[in-house]
Each structure stands twice: as structure tokens, then as C-alpha cells.
Amino acid sequence: PEETVTSSFASFIQAVRPEHLSKTVRQRSKRMILDSIGVGLVGSTTHVFDIALQYCRELYSSVAVSSVYGKPGVKLSPTLAAFTNGVATHSMDFDDTWHPATHPSGAVLPALLAASQMLPPSTKPNGVDFLLAFNVGLEVQGRLMHFSTEAHNIPKRFHPPSVVGTMGSAAATAKLLSLSTTQCAHALGIAASLAGAPMANAATQAKPLHIGNATRLGFEAALLAARGMEANPLILDDIPGCSGFSAFYSVYQPKPLSTSSDHHEFLLEKQDIAFKRFPAHLGMHWVVDAALSVRNLFINYAGSFAPSLIRNIVLKIPMSKYINRPFPTSEHQARHSFQFNACTALLDGEVCLSSFTESSIHRQELRELLDKVVVEHPEDNVANFDKMYGEVALLLHSGDVLTGKCDTFYGHWRKPLSKESLLKKFRSNASHVFPEEKIETIITLVDNLESLSDSSQL
Amino acid sequence: TITENFANVIHGLNANHLTDQVIQRSKRMILDTLGVGLLGTSTEVCHKVTQYSKIYSSDISSTIWGHLDFRLPPLYAAFVNGVAVHSMDFDDTWHPATHPSGAVLPAVIALSEAFPQKKKISGLDLLLAFNVGIEVQGRLLRFSSEARNIPKRFHPPTVVGTMGSAAACAKLLALDQLKCKNALAIAASYAGAPLANAATQTKPLHVGNAAKHGLEAACLASQGLQGNKQILDMESGIGAFYTDYNPQTLPTLQSYPWLLDQQDVAIKRFPAHLGTHWVADAASSVRKKLVESSDNLLPLEKIEKVILKVPEVKYVNRPSPTSEHEARHSFQFVACSALLDGSVSVQSFAGENIHRPALQELLRKTQLEHPPDNTPSFESLYCEVSVTLRDGNTVSDRCDTFYGHWRKPLKKEDLEKKFQSNASSVLPAEALEGVTETVYNLEKVGDCSVL
To answer: Where is the MmgE/PrpD C-terminal domain (chain B) (predicted)?
Structure first.
């Protein structure tokens, strides 16, 4: 029988083996796991996290087997633990970003962690199984995004983690639970009916829920499929007149996954991930690096950073409504504001966790700088994480112009964070919640993931 | 903003605004939905979700309709009951198209059971919240011309149903305006499931999830979670689910014009997609012309072919369905069942009936035609059934408005008959009476948890 796209995905999920993972893929995915955990740990100190946790604890108590980031002793039911940890991961917009655009790890890791705690001791997955399932979750997300050219640019309609993230979580969990091919297909089908959140909630407190729900609902879809729930077996295929997964795109061209028995090329092999250096939308990282470079020029020119000498600050950025905010008032808005991040970088010489506190956001000096900002959208600056650039120009009262431009920020996949930088980020994040020995233990565990016999230790 | 306007209305509507007609119609909807849900608890899909939901149990809990043996947390009770309501595609349908009650009633009932002892919810509170949930759905559906026709991309209950559930729960929780707004915003991030899962076992989950997620959104909003305050205004908000989206503010609260007043729902007489109800009525009447008395069998050998003139609706066009879910979404199947049996009922979709040789034979002779004037809208579609006999004669009939449609609503006795038939599969006779009485007198009920 002719193979459908959906069945090719189901076969892939079911049949792929650890041997298919290449060295690069292993290494990259372990970096992602470490970063994701760190980001989740620091995220467990946020207000949105508190709300999500309180909500889950009030409504559910028993069969609580799964842990919550940063709260030793607290346990929740598996899907709710996944939800809470997913919210933590995305709470500060500090988690990884891929190309085409989505936040892949946060949608997958929490579900896998919760699921591995859920399984009985006799069938606990080992580190290799875990790593494989994680990569299945990433791969499915990447492949789905390649079905639409719309996915290559910064999104406008649906927030990608809520679309492909849910599917990735379903795939990863299905893999970890060793579901049959048919069950894998149904997991994808059920997950599609749980996918899709509009962009409008980005830059609000509700955005972290997108990742929380992606990981939770994908997990639920797999659990339901495991119990025999059936969905449309052609959910990924293009059926005119009755939309399946294609409902989320206006242009949709699905392709089957190849499942040759010995070799599968994972997308992560060819396309690495970007790790953020500070907790804000990825686009901010370009303007910040550009701002830092022009700041140096300015200091050389004037001896110190003297805002009074500046007449205007011109930002040359791509056109994207939800990250263009001249005067953000909340931390969520600030994380999604080119203007805010550029000015913070100019003022402080860095952007970090504390740049987004209430007092930092409302500083008088910052407001004054924001007043001087002018935004331009050059035609060659495409709203695409692979191609965009950021340029910051200081127009001084004296008539001089100083410019800084950034094509590839440090942390982008073209200029990946070094191992030391990644560990530094992790240690800084985790230290908000854990003592030093614990932090080092986690680092070692993830680094040696393949040799772990029981992944629920993680 | 429109979002703020919605929040104000949700917050500001009170029992005095309910008109008699709205009260009467909504009580009919509640009764029908309960019956359909009770029946639905016996389905396979419902068993699966119940098993699944049992993973979670806690101190705060709500009941599964018809089952007193265990309780679930409110969210999962809402989910399971919502699945039950839509499990057989037997629940109400509105215009513009959605299944309004299933997304709202399970959520408000579950929520009302979860309130602490000291704070009782009256029947009137429940009725009001229910209507807020229905009203919000209807208003949202009017924001896009796409919504007037039978859907193609997103299944409407998952889009507007989630929002309606959030609104209804926000009302029941008596959230302030700001929290009502946030409930809507958060709910939007849960909304939207593609149509492809219609006619599969997953479809009932659409209504279950709408109820559950709307409730969750309201609970999160109640705890202070915030979303986009212009969620209804922006194209990248609820507008993301439509290609043309024109939101409008709601009317003022002064003598509020409820949509349910102007536009009633359709109640189904048998558990299948609404479009098939026209087909069933036309086919039954053709059968009467072919067969002298209802005891006689349909003369299959004499039939050359059967032509159904229906609107073009891909997901209800199934020449040979193999599962009950597919059968419920098949013009052809329902037409042939009606021709063979004279009427369509719950039993028509049982496994053995789906695979009957006589039915299969008749299905092979059945074709669809899509006249250009037959628009895929529940307001205007029609169905014509023509049976051509081997001797050359043709017997046909046409149905413009089936019995149960809003233009020809079910009489009180027939609505009750449907409820009794459904509920009796799970409840004892005295309970049946009790529920019916309670729903009819809902406004006077002091503590709606008696329901």
C-alpha cells in the first residue's frame, strides 16, 4: 500500500534505534538537555511558575510521582509535572531556539523526565533510550516545520512551539513508552487536536503556557494512544477539504520520512541550535551584540558612556510586530522589545537576568535613552533567524555617527556557545535553586547520559 | 477594545437579563445534553478517557454523569463528561455551526460541584453561567463569514467552545472584569483542533477538551495569570483561526439581546452529523412511497440506484463506512439505513447493523450529487433522495427542514422521550423523573449540586 506521510512518521518513531544517533547529534542534544534543565531551574523562581504550580497542586494530589524543577519534595502527577516544568522552561524566554523557528527542548524534555519517573522500576528507560526519545522529539518537530515555507520566518499566526512542540512531545513520549507503529500514528493524530495557540499571547505572562501545554498535551496524546485511543491515520497528510495538521499553515507540503534500516540523518546533525545568553526573545541577541560593539566605539570616542551626547539611536531591524515595542511596561514585554534590549546593552554594557526586574525596566536613564530610539526596517533585513542582522547607530549631537552591526550573535548556531560558556550559563541558572555539589552532579550526569542505567535519576 | 467589552459583558450580565425564551430554550438544551451525556458514558471512547483520567484523583472532586462509584478532579470530570456528550455526535448544533452545550455544561457542572460547602451555587447561577457560555460562542462565530458554512479547517467547538467554556466558568467563579479578560486570553492559547479528526474516535475529545481547557483557563485567570488583553481584537489572537476576521463589540447590557433568543439550536433525533438528518427525513418519506405498510421490507432487487442530492461536505461523504464514527459522518450510510428501516436510531450504528449485507448492497447502489444551489450551511441546505427502480420509475422526495431543526423544533414530549431513552441506559426510572424536574425548575433550585 502506498505509504502516507503520517505512517512514515509513525514508522520512524517506532523503528529508530540508538545506533542511528550520530556523534554530533548526541553531543548537541546533550548540550540542549543541560541548558534546558538550567533554564527550567532558574524559571522555577518566577511568578508565572508559582501560579502554574499552585494550580496543579490544588487540583491534583495523588499518584504524584513526578518531580518539579527546583522544588525538591514536591511531586505531581506526570502530565502536570511536565506542564509545570514546561512553564518553568519558557518562563523567561531563556530556552533554546532552532531554525526553522521554534523552542524545541522545552516541549520535549519535561515530558520525558516526568514519563521516566512514571514507569515502573522494571521498565525504566536507560540514558540511551532517553537520549533517543529526546532526539525523536526534536526530529519530528524539525521535519514538520519543513512542510511549510511559512515556518522559515518569524511566526505571525500560530506560535510554533504550540504547533510542532505538541507533536514533538507526543512523538518523544511515544518513543519512550515503546508504542507500536499504529499507536505512534494515533499519538500524532490526537496531539494535532491539542496543538495550536495564537501568537497574540507572546510577550504576555501566558506565553510560557504554550511550552507547558505543548509538552503536557503531547504527553497526554501518547498516553491516550497507549490506551487504544484512535485518531485520523492521515493527520499529517494533505487532504483537501478537510484539514489535518495542515490547518495551521496556509501553504503545506508534507513529505514522508525515510526509514532505511541502517541510516537516518537527523536534522540536528546539519542544523544546530541557538542558545540564549540572556533571557529575551532570540531577535534581541543581534541588537544587543551590535549595541555592545557600538558602545565600545562610543567609549573610545568619548571616554565614557555619555548619553547626553547622543541625539538619536537608530535601530535597523527586521519587521516583526510582536518584538517591536518602544516602551515596554512589563518584564514579558521587555523580553520582546528590540528597543529595550538595545538601550539596556548601551547603558549597562550587558544584558542579564536582572535587566528585566521591575526597577530595571522603569529606570529613568533607560527611559531617556528609549526616547531617542528610531526604528528602521531595511528591506534586506528579513524576519528570519537564519538571515537577519541587527544594526545600532548612534547619531551624536556633534554630527558624528557611530555604528555597530551584528550578523551572527554569540550563541547563534553559526557561532555556538563554547562548552565553558554553556556551563557558565547552567551554573548561574542552577545556583538560584541548588547548592554547588548538586549542580556539578547534574552536569556530569547529562554529560554521561548514555551510560546512565536509569534515566529517572535525572 | 473588544476584548475588554466582552469581559465587561461577561462580568455584568446577571439573572435579570435572562428572557423567558432564553430560559426555556436553554433548559431544553441542558436536558438534552444531560441525556446524551449519560448515554455516552457507555461508549468505548468514554471508557478509554475515564481510565486515562483515573490517573488523577484528589480531594476536590466532581462526578461523572451517571457514575457514583468514583469521582475525578473537576477538570477531568469536565473532560470525561464532555467526551461523553459528543461521543455519539448526538448533541445539539447551532447556527453558525458549532456544538454549543457540550463545551459548556460539563465544565459548569463540574465546577459547581467543586465549590466548598459554604458557598452554594444556585440553579439560577448555573443557568446564567451556561447562557454566558453559549452567548460568547455565538458572538465569536459571527466574527467571520467562514463560520456560516460547514467547517473545513478547524473544528468549531474547539475554537469557540473553549472560549465559551472559559467565559461560563469565569462567570460562575464571579471573576472581576480583568480576570474575565485573562480567562479569554488564556483560553485562546488552548483553542483550535483540525477537522481531520472528525469521524474518528478522537472527535469527542474535541468537546471534552473544550470544556476542560476553558475551565482550566478560568482557574488560571482566577489565580492571577495574565494573557493578551486584546486577544479578541488581534488577528494574531483568536483571528489566527480564521482567514477573515472582523470582531465587534457586544450590545449594551440594557435589555441584552441574547443570540439564543433570535436563533434556536437544532436537537438531533439520532446520533449522527447534523447534515444527515435532512437525508434521513427525505429517505424515510421515499420509503413510505415505495412500501405500502411499514411491515414490508424494502424491495431491494427492484432498486437500480439511489441518488442523494446533498451539499458538498467532504468529511460527511463516505460511500462505505467501516466504523461507527465513520457511519455517523456518512450521508450515504444514513440514507440507506433510513430506506431499509424506515427510521434511524441509536441502534442503526451498532456494529452488526453497519455491516449488514442488505445495507452494504444498497450502499453500492448509492451516489451523491452536489447541486450548485445546495450550499453547505445548516441554515440553507436541503436534501433530495431519488430512488430509481429497474422498471424505470423514480420515486423521490425532498427535505428542506428536518424535524428537530431550529425551524421545526422538537416538541416537549419528543425532547423528553429522547432524554428518557438516553438516560435510562444509565439511570434508574425515579432518577430520570428527578433530573427532568430539576432542569425544568432550574431557576428555583437553591443548590444546583442536587443535579
So the answer is: 270-431
Residue B284 and residue B264 share a domain: no
CATH numbers and ranges of domains, chain A: 5-277+416-457 (1.10.4100.10), 282-406 (3.30.1330.120)
- Contact between A199 and B201 using a beta-carbon 8 Å cutoff: no
Q: Residue A77 is nearest to which of B45, B55, B198, comparing CB atoms?
A: B55
Q: Are B212 and B246 within one domain?
A: yes
Give yes or no for a contact between B317 and B331, defined as CB atoms under 8 angstroms apart.
Answer: yes
Question: Which chain B residues contact residue A189 at CB under 8 A?
Answer: 196-197, 200, 202
Rounded mean pLDDT, B172-191? 91
Residue B406 lies in a domain: no
Task: Write the DSSP symbol of residue B349.
Answer: G
Q: Decide if B185 and A204 are in contact by the 8 Å CB cutoff.
A: yes
Which of A118, A193, A246 is most worth mutating to test chain B (most B CB atoms within 10 A of its CB)? A193
Q: Tell me the chain B residues in contact with residue A243 when contact means C-beta distances shorter than 8 Å.
A: 152-154, 194-196
For cell 553531543, what's the residue?
Answer: A27
CB spacing of B55 vs A78 below 8 angstroms = yes
d(CA B386, CA B402): 17
**Pairwise CB contact (< 8 Å): B194 & A201:** no
- Express as a percent the part of chain B with pLDDT over 90: 39
B438 in any annotated domain: yes
> What is the reported pLDDT for A19?
74
ipTM over 0.90: no
Contact A426, A42 (CB under 8 A): no
Residue A414's identity, in one-letter code, is R
Range of the domain at B214: 2-269+412-450
Q: What is the pLDDT of residues A312-365, one digit of tens each?
A: 999 999 988 888 999 999 888 999 999 999 999 999 999 998 899 989 999 999
Residues of chain B positioned with their CB less than 8 A from the CB of A65: none
Q: Are residues B248 and B281 in the same domain?
A: no
**CATH number, residue B363:** 3.30.1330.120
Residues B79 and B47: their CA atoms lie apart, in Å, by: 12
Q: What CATH number is associated with residue B85?
A: 1.10.4100.10
Confidence (pLDDT) at A1: 47
A209 to B193: CB separation less than 8 angstroms, yes or no: no
